[in-house]
Amino acid sequence: MIDFQHILTSINEAASNEKDKGKIADYIPELAKVNVDNFGIHLIDIQQNNFSAGKSDEKFSIQSISKVLSLSMALGLIGEKVWKRVDVEPSGDPFNHLSLLELENGIPRNPLINPGAIVIADILVSKLEHPKEEFLSYVQNIANDDTIAYDLGVAKSEKRTGFRNFAAANLLKSYGNLNNDVDIVLDFYFHQCSLAMNCVQLTNTFFMFMNNGKCRRNNTLLTISQVKRINAIMLTCGFYDEAGEFAFEVGLPGKSGVGGGIVAFLPNKFCVATWSPGLNPKGNSKLGMLALEKLTTETELSIF
Amino acid sequence: MIDFQHILTSINEAASNEKDKGKIADYIPELAKVNVDNFGIHLIDIQQNNFSAGKSDEKFSIQSISKVLSLSMALGLIGEKVWKRVDVEPSGDPFNHLSLLELENGIPRNPLINPGAIVIADILVSKLEHPKEEFLSYVQNIANDDTIAYDLGVAKSEKRTGFRNFAAANLLKSYGNLNNDVDIVLDFYFHQCSLAMNCVQLTNTFFMFMNNGKCRRNNTLLTISQVKRINAIMLTCGFYDEAGEFAFEVGLPGKSGVGGGIVAFLPNKFCVATWSPGLNPKGNSKLGMLALEKLTTETELSIF
Amino acid sequence: MIDFQHILTSINEAASNEKDKGKIADYIPELAKVNVDNFGIHLIDIQQNNFSAGKSDEKFSIQSISKVLSLSMALGLIGEKVWKRVDVEPSGDPFNHLSLLELENGIPRNPLINPGAIVIADILVSKLEHPKEEFLSYVQNIANDDTIAYDLGVAKSEKRTGFRNFAAANLLKSYGNLNNDVDIVLDFYFHQCSLAMNCVQLTNTFFMFMNNGKCRRNNTLLTISQVKRINAIMLTCGFYDEAGEFAFEVGLPGKSGVGGGIVAFLPNKFCVATWSPGLNPKGNSKLGMLALEKLTTETELSIF
Amino acid sequence: MIDFQHILTSINEAASNEKDKGKIADYIPELAKVNVDNFGIHLIDIQQNNFSAGKSDEKFSIQSISKVLSLSMALGLIGEKVWKRVDVEPSGDPFNHLSLLELENGIPRNPLINPGAIVIADILVSKLEHPKEEFLSYVQNIANDDTIAYDLGVAKSEKRTGFRNFAAANLLKSYGNLNNDVDIVLDFYFHQCSLAMNCVQLTNTFFMFMNNGKCRRNNTLLTISQVKRINAIMLTCGFYDEAGEFAFEVGLPGKSGVGGGIVAFLPNKFCVATWSPGLNPKGNSKLGMLALEKLTTETELSIF
Asked: Which of helix, strand or coil describes residue D154?
């Protein structure tokens, strides 16, 4: 039997001793205010035992991690038709100046890069009467937690400065792969990305993906097949241009966000979330990546 | 002595006999209404003798041809500082899906592609109190013709559908190479592109570039060195991805627009404008390109 | 308990009823001679029970599947130093005309694309006294099967026509990431790719990767950590530009070759190999991909 | 009347006072042996008056300048059929790591980049019985100078180290746009590039392009139309990624080589050659570019 608490405690210590904690994302002004020293980790196993270390109950902006949840909701709403508008291939593009164009003929490479997630947002805006409210309820329902909320300051901040996302949305529109107005879709998208959670809430939410689609209260929102496919996408596309490296070093499906959060899990075993706002050059939480490497090295648990 | 009138008449006949007149641009709905059979040509020589054939006095939307005029005005206003924000290299990019990104680190390849012209528009918006009015006056002054005007229907039409330009402007903004609001810059840009002229007015306007910077009334707006440089840019960058082909087949500096207009000139000799709305696959007027090839073949005049 | 034999038999039937069996690779003339109707499948489980259907004992050229074996040998020889010369990111490049350049500053994106495998070949040529002989022995040892051999006709055929590989090798050389002569490295590489196996031999060989590095006779050649990493690379990079799709649809690590072979496995459970020479447009065996989809759908087994 | 001698003398003085003389190309070992301080310039006008300054009679490797001469010979041999195998668009590619692939479906962007010149070499190898001898005679005939010769040391040096050219040739071969063996075509190509000339010989050779196709002795090898087209290609493609900049700053057609030579001309007026082996970051002779800028600024002569 693995002593998760012991491992988490030692990971937290190692994190606090690390000199170089990475660089906080500053392109969203609101995110730049966070203290780089923060580190938290939380793990929930399949039996719903909980283990924590560090600031596991401090909230942060989950940012791109929300893309898994919007994809999940879109799949529930329109099923496999999602894949007519977005592909499932890793982006693999190391060249920043091309990254906006991870579309071929208007089809984004996958739903976890920005242009792909904007297409998913467009689907939700089309299908939902009150997109922002209904998406939030959806997430609260998965997590069984009504306190989860948008951070309106972050949403507003990104709306003012997210020119690259405006560029991507307009490009999608020019290809006919955006049915609603750019402003409406991005208003939803920026709210979605502003979701604030702590590590505990994050594991409560992603418990579903680790547990064949069943939430903690045993309710289900996706078929087993849909869950497996979302998990596959997380493994191959969840960590920007570092997806291969993460699969290679850690061997778990998961997703990171520029707010410094990472969530990852071993199907049928455990789900873990880390938070540390300093990023490595590829845009993933520096201490979070190290923590997950350490966790899988010490437990020798991976999907491979 | 060359009999220009004879040559123009025979070009006009050849054009009307041509079966395949190209395809009208339909991405700006307002432009799609024009009849594909139209053809006009006008030539003015250095002594201000005029020669015409076909519908040389029918107005059309000059579109990208206006980029030469906004560049000219920007150079007059801030001089060589223009080149800190836009480069002078041919775009050379044959791949449509990359064409938005003809920027390196936010610097567009040249001022005659859309992202480059949007940067020039941003310069004018910054420097002018009433950008649209002052730019129009500038063009009227060059041409010595107060009847030149914007086509507000075209400007409005492009504003509603120009998602690719919104994408480019937002991308420039994300790189910090756009000082004003995207909407304000593009409002100016769409007006600029909507300028309506006929072939006669076009040659009257570009007479200045053929004549070392002196307009028909002998007033000057640019230094000789600035004129020569704009002319060089027209030769290397004036015809989208067909710039090399045009220099190769025709050997004159010039500029084309998706409205079907082309203007070209031999320095110190003549300036010629053609109009025919059907485009070839590279986006240049099909009959216009053939007309200019024929003109330089028959006259054996070229800069080479 | 899963009835593998029943599933394999039904897969074989479905395959023989399929009208469109894909297109045989014709760029290596020797490969073009095979009959497109061939289909075989073999599965070995962790207890070494064996199940077969179709032409599971007919040999074919394993081609790119060999890249996993050369990578494995190189890792055994020089360990983690391999990763200084090749990266581990999915290639993700959908544009054929760029695919040669899946190198950044001479570092190929991963060891399972051609330029990456050529670097691995260079490592083996440097480290082995008799590279071709020793690599063959290595593979025979893993499979516990002395009858595995190169197909010299295929090796020769590719040597005469593999201009794209000569281009890649020379490009690597120009970046200083090839220590030996291009001709010597490619001679080894073409032999490596020409390895002929049937489905049974393929599962016997890859049993090691399914079984934490232990071969069927319990001998070990790699550390557990090395095995997990190779498995991660197979999942993210094993199926050309279809790697994401394969993870999404099948959910197993594996590797395909243009000879029409595919091998895939679920760690600690089973290893399966299919062969059918007709390829889909992405370059993977058409019937093989369908077979593996069917296998994981019916068994509901995947790493996710 | 312009005092060319005065201008050349002052250019030579300015060159010798320049501190930063650029960086000598070192990828061809033989070229790296030259002294960076060398500078020479020679000008011949249409009346065949000659003006010199600096080391105008010292020989150097003309390298890429030879591409204009091989193109010229190929055009003479097979005429416009050349354009089925190579395009005439500027390369415009600022990204080094892509530059090898300035081919679309095997058609190089223009005949003055390496892949394009290799296709031209292939044409000559197909059409000539003794390619190296006949090409040399062709050049000697244009220049009316039997002393022009290959530098066999340079040819040999590049053969040993020109991996990037081997890559390009193999890639062309894979697309079916190379009819002869890679080794044979490149042996010719490396000899062609190794042609050694001094500035006087270079102007004597390119006199033909300045003079509507007539060599100094009045013999002709090309039609006027062919000459104009080659001149257009030199203007748009003659200076690597700096072609636009050169047209913009200098306004003359011309060609540069990594040996530090540049030749340029104003049709019907003069032809000038400079040599200085230090290159700027774009790969053109640093002092040569400055010299030509100064020449056209002081004479106010340009094609625009």
From this structure: helix
Cα–Cα nearest to B256, from B283, B278, B233, B236? B283
In chain B, the residue whose alpha carbon lies closest to the alpha carbon of D267 is: B304
Instruction: Tell me if the pTM is above 0.90.
Output: yes
Q: How far apart are CA D226 and CA D232, in angstroms?
A: 10
Q: What is the pLDDT of residues D205-247, one digit of tens each?
A: 999 999 999 999 999 999 999 999 999 999 999 998 788 899 9
Nearest to B299 by CA among B261, B264, B262, B275: B264
Give the CB-side neighbour count of residue A291, counting CA atoms within 13 A: 37
* Contact status, residue A290 vs residue A18, Cβ threshold 8 Å: yes
CB contact under 8 A, A167 and B170: yes
The pLDDT assigned to A282 comes to 87
Distance of alpha carbon D230 from its chain centroid, rounded? 12
C297/C248 Cα distance (integer angstroms): 12
Contact B126, B82 (CB under 8 A): no
Q: Is D138 annotated in the active site?
A: no
Please name which of B254, B270, B272 lies closest in space to residue B68, comparing C-alpha atoms.
B254
D240 known ligand binder: yes
Superfamily of domain B4-299: DD-peptidase/beta-lactamase superfamily (3.40.710.10)
Q: Do A174 and B164 touch (CB under 8 A)?
A: yes
The predicted structure's pLDDT at residue B92: 58
Q: Is C150 a catalytic residue?
A: no
> Looking at the predicted structure, is the pLDDT value of residue B27 above 80?
no
| Tokens encoding A150 | 């948008």
The answer to whether D197 touches D47, Cβ cutoff 8 Å, is: no
Amino acid residing at C141: N
Q: Do the annotations mark residue B150 as ligand-binding?
A: no
| Domain spans, chain C | 4-299
pLDDT of residue B102: 62
Task: Give the residue from B76, B121, B97, B71 showing the smallest Cα distance to B238.
Answer: B71
Arithmetic mean of pLDDT, B204-209: 98
Check residue B242 and give its pLDDT. Answer: 86
Q: 3-state SS string over A208-252?
A: HHHCCCECCCCCECCCHHHHHHHHHHHHHHCCHHHHHHHHHHCCC
Residue with tokens 């032999």: C191
Q: Which chains touch C (3 or more CB pairs under 8 A)?
A: A, D
For A238: left if phi > 0, alpha if psi spans -120 to 50, otherwise beta; the answer is alpha
pLDDT in tens, A132-163: 999 999 999 999 999 999 999 999 999 998 99
The CA distance from A274 to A266, in Å, is 15
Residue A105, chain B, CB below 8 Å: the answer is yes
Q: Residues with Cβ < 8 Å from B49, sequence gap 6 or more?
A: B4
B100 touches chain A (CB under 8 A): yes
ipTM of the complex: 0.93
Chain position carrying tokens 């040529």: C125
Q: Residue A94: its chain C contacts at CB < 8 A?
A: 89, 104, 109
| Contact residues, chain A, for C244 at CB < 8 Å | 87-90, 110, 232-233, 236-237
Question: Is D114 one of the annotated binding-site residues?
Answer: yes
B165 known member of a binding site: yes
Q: What is the mean pLDDT of residues A46-63?
A: 97
What mean pLDDT do residues B76-84 have? 96
**Tally of CA atoms within 13 A in the half-sphere of C196 that contains its CB:** 14
| Cβ-Cβ contacts under 8 Å for B129 (sequence gap 6 or more) | none
Per-residue pLDDT, A215 = 96
Gap between the Cα atoms of B72 and D210, Å rounded: 31
How far apart are the CA of D265 and the nearest CA of chain B, in angstroms?
Answer: 10
Looking at the DSSP bridge assignments, the partners of residue C197 are C60
> Would you call D103 an interface residue with chain C, using a CB distance cutoff of 8 Å?
yes
